[in-house]
Amino acid sequence: MTARRTCLGLPLNNSTESRVQTSPTESKVDVLHLTSVHSADDSRIFGKECVSLARAGYRVGIVVPEEGTCMRRVDGVDIIPVRRRSKRPGRMLASTISVAVTGLRRRASVYHFHDPELIPIGLALRLLGKRVIYDAHEDVPRDILFKNWIPPYLRRITAVTMAAVEWFTGHTLSGVVAATPIIARRFPARRTALVQNFARLSEFAVPEEPPHSGGHAIAYVGGLTVERCAIEMVEAVARVKRYPDARLILAGNIESEALTTELAAMEGWPRVEYRGFQSRTGVARILSEAAAGLALFHPMQSYMESQPVKMFEYMAAGLPVIAADFPRFRDIIEGSRCGICVPPRNPADIAGAIEWILDHPEEAREMGRRGRRLVLDIFNWEGQEKSLLQLYQRILA
Hints:
Blueprint: E1 3-7, E2 30-34, H1 45-55, E3 59-65, E4 70-74, E5 77-82, H2 88-106, E6 110-113, H3 119-127, E7 131-136, H4 140-144, H5 152-172, E8 175-178, H6 181-184, E9 192-194, E10 217-221, H7 230-238, E11 247-251, H8 257-264, E12 272-274, H9 280-289, E13 292-295, H10 301-304, H11 309-316, E14 321-324, H12 327-333, E15 339-342, H13 347-359, H14 361-377, H15 381-396
Parallel strand pairs: 2-3, 2-6, 3-5, 6-7, 7-8, 8-9, 10-11, 10-13, 11-12, 13-14, 14-15
Antiparallel strand pairs: 1-4, 4-5
């Protein structure tokens, strides 16, 4: 990843754009992505969508909340920071306003926003005659039913209201990008592009024989929360008795100090290598060390119907997957014989799956090969990129 920096208001060195092939039409199109929640290195927004658009010849920027005030260019994309707010009220109000004001100043041809909080801004931009795209990462109305920070008596009415708002949004904006087929069904088909968050093949190039044979490390990459089975994973590695050298590699931010303290006090923590947040290169390096990848979640509706990118990244890296025993996950993992599904709240079953992988290295490698082939054929970003670019061509026509 190459980067150029400039403080806001100063000229930007354009040398990193020299490798981008542009057409006469696309070279005039400025695209601005807006988010008040995600970080500048978000793998879907920046690493896939923004970089793909830049390589297709669009001039791309992304407004994100982060520390510092210096704009920089990474892989042909301008990263434009606004002040980060850590608390939810500040993020939902002040960050939203900052992102909106900064976005309007850029006078882009296409605005592409990624958070439900930004829907009013998207509608206002549409009223001003702008081309606007809403990127629906999650099934927001359904997720609201499980948000602990919303009082239980308000969740259903809030969910119904949000469903109505998204319905109106989908029929008003220029286009919608949906991250899963279930989300896509909630928006008008003629305006919606299904752009699934699959693995980018170029990040996980592996030889025909995966390099992780013989290792006793199990990896988890992603946000570490209670709902994403952080506690169960640490307890499970403590139960892997036949392999005292087995270790759990965790990569990602831990959601709170309280969870950090709780994990550090657990019996399995001495067998954990916590590596914190990792770059895309760091993620690939960790997966090259592992014998399997974990994709575990509590059985909440939003997770049960999700398509977690970590699952496809494990497969792309040639790893067998130990996944939550959800119907959608079973269809992919056990249906394609590229891993094992287990009850995610049961550390004993998770430990049993880890021991099976370590007991059967040849079968595990074959699972990894099957998963890798599936990603090469179907579950890759390179195929989804076409849907994104076609949506842009359609709304610009």
